[in-house]
Amino acid sequence: MARILIIEDNPANMKLATFLLISAGHEVLQAVDAESGLEQIHAKLPELVLMDVQLPGMDGLAATRRIKADPAIAHIPVIALTSHAMRGDEEAILAAGCESYLPKPFHHRELLELVNVMLERSQKRRDTK
Ligand code: MN
After folding, report:
1. How far does Cα 32 stand from its chain's mean position?
2. Whose CB among 26, 27, 78, 116 lies 3.0–4.6 Å from 3's, allowing a Cys bridge?
3. What is the Å distance from ligand 1's center to 56 Cα?
4. Ligand 1 centre from 70 Cα, in Å?
C-alpha cells in the first residue's frame, strides 16, 4: 500500500489508473498537468509517480527531469506512461530520469505488477541505506 501520484491529462486513462490503484489498496493523488503535479510532489511526497509523457504545457519528460534534479524528491520513482507514437523513444524516456515506462493502453495486470516492482525496489533501497 503506497501513496501514488498520477499525472495524466486524459480523463479515461486517469479514471482507469485511479480505479486500479485504489482497488489494489493504494492511496491515489491526481494531477492533470505537470505544473500542479510538481506542486503535489513537494507538498505530499508520494512514494511513486505515474507520469503521462504527453501533457499540455510542460511535458512529462521535462517534469521528470525537474524531479530528478531536486535532491528533496529525486528518490521518488517515476513510471512514464507512453503512447504508441513514442515507441522507440525508450532511451529518451530513461535519459530523462524515468525509472520505467508503460505503453498505453496498458493491461490492468501490467500496471499493477510494474507498480509493485517499483515500490519493492525503492523499499529495498531504503532498507539498505
Ligand atoms: Mn496526455
Report:
1. 12
2. 27
3. 7
4. 24
Distance from the alpha carbon of residue 117 to the mean position of ligand 1, in angstroms: 24
CA of 21 to the centre of ligand 1 (A): 19
Divide the 129 residues of the chain into consecutive groups of 10 and give the mean pLDDT of each group: 97 96 98 98 98 96 98 97 80 95 92 97 83
Whole-model pTM: value is 0.95
The grid coordinates of residue 87 equal: 515507441
Ligand 1 geometric centre to CA of 103 (Å) = 12
Q: Which residues pair with 80 in a beta bridge?
A: 51, 101
Q: Taking the C-alpha atoms of 38, 23, 87 and 73 in order, what is their torsion angle to the nearest 10 degrees?
A: 30
Residues in the chain: 129
Show the beta-strand stretches assigned E in the chain. Answer: 3-7, 27-31, 48-52, 78-82, 100-103
